[in-house]
Amino acid sequence: VITDSGGIREETDVIGVPLLTVRGTTERPEMVTIGANALIRTNPMAIHLVVEKLFKENWKKGNIPDKWDGNTADRRVNILLELFNNSTVN
Prior knowledge:
By secondary structure, the chain is mainly α.
């Protein structure tokens, strides 16, 4: 996928699809370091080089970040319960 959007980064990693982000920055740098996203800025030559690398099947294998297991709500509830149970009621 080639995009200048910010909303597809997580989805492509979860389904194992390489992503080329044509932007200067990203709000999800972990998708570049851990995942299969490449931040290639807006240089047309960089796009060409990265696509060529992709077609040669020389692309990094993306990984899903820790704790992206669908259990975030449970972890948050447990933290809140622990905080509540450990607090002093006046």
